[in-house]
Amino acid sequence: MIDFAGIQIGHTTYPELYTGCTVFLCPDGTWGAVDARGPAPGSRELALLAPDKPEDKEVDAVLLTGGSAFGLAAADGVMKYLAEKGRGHPTPIRPVPIVPAAVVYDFFFNMGSFTPNAESGYNACVAAETYEGDIEQGNVGAGTGVLVGKWAGFEHMMKGGFGVSSIRVGDVVVAAAAVVNAVGDIVDDDGRVLAGARSSEGGWEVSRNPLRYTEFRPPLPTGTNTTLVVAATNARLSRSELARMTHQAHNGLAISVRPSHTRHDGDIAFALSTRRVDAPIDLVNNLTVAAVSEAIRNGVRFADTLMSVSGPGSMR
């Protein structure tokens, strides 16, 4: 069971089209922040989450989706769902739902023939209605068609996926979800590779190249790799504290993805606070690092082989 600090999670998965999307439905009063460190992020409504923006701009949902920038259309379906519920920032005419969104590039399996759309986003919201702590991981939602370990070339890559983790200390909950589509390898807390660039002779490419660096000819395309993270807490945080939480989320990413934040990755971390309990910010930050690292690892632990691309989950 995954306690996501009162936030509901839902997937829309297209297993035969190798893509999908994942939505996080926030309770009333949720605040958010974001830190986009990738050179080519695909996104929507990120500027509204900056620390200098008004505090009355609450977050109604966050969407993570496949389909590269085309997949941002799925956010329209999330807005439609929320509008039907009367959710959104109040205006003189009608509420306007606030739905930040981010994408991964997952065209390698379906060659871009289909991308999530408004119906996909709406259906993910419907799926989230029944969330009570159980959520599928691996080749689902926005993690359906993602890949990892591309630093040594596409012939060495493995299947990535969607993962979650949650930690409670007393009344304080910090949870994280990740869509893992990284250039780098995914490593355990002792540095052991869980998924990544596999050697054609068996084992891992990193054993022959400890720096995980290769001269690509042609160069590895930028903007085709991204790890997306949503970290959430029930702790009551200020805007600036939420911004610090996103920094800690990226620290968790850097611990579990090597190399991380490369010029080929569009890494984005969201932080959400449902503002239920008081808690020391240092505790929340430390829990965030641990939860994000484990969510990323779970994303590959539960990933199954797709076509000829191996997934660690298939080896369990």
What is this entry, summarized?
Helices cover 21% and strands 25% of the residues. The protein contains five helices and 15 strands.
Q: Helices and strands in order, then pairings?
A:
Blueprint lengths: L7 E7 L4 E7 L5 E6 L6 E2 L16 E5 L8 H11 L16 E3 L3 H4 L7 H11 L18 E2 L9 E2 L2 E8 L2 E10 L3 E3 L5 E3 L30 E10 L3 H18 E2 L9 E10 L3 H21 L15
Parallel strand pairs: 5-6, 13-15
Antiparallel strand pairs: 1-2, 2-5, 3-15, 4-6, 7-8, 9-10, 10-13, 11-12, 11-14
Helix pairs in contact: 1-3, 4-5
- Global mean pLDDT: 93
Rg calculated over all Cα atoms:
18 Å
* Largest sheet composition: 5 strands, mixed
For the termini, the CA-CA separation is 20 Å
CATH architecture descriptor text:
4-Layer Sandwich
H/I helix tally: 5
Which structural class fits the helix and strand makeup? alpha+beta
Question: So what's the CATH class?
Answer: Alpha Beta
CATH topology: L-amino peptidase D-ALA esterase/amidase
Q: Please bin the fraction of helical residues.
A: 10-25%
Major sheet: arrangement of strands: 1-2-5-6-4
Describe this structure in words.
With 316 residues, the protein is an alpha+beta fold. It has a single domain (8-304), classed as L-amino peptidase D-ALA esterase/amidase. Helices cover 21% and strands 25% of the residues. The strands form four sheets. Strands 1-2-5-6-4 form a five-stranded mixed β-sheet, covered by helices on one side. A five-stranded mixed β-sheet has the order 3-15-13-10-9. α1 (74-84) crosses α3.
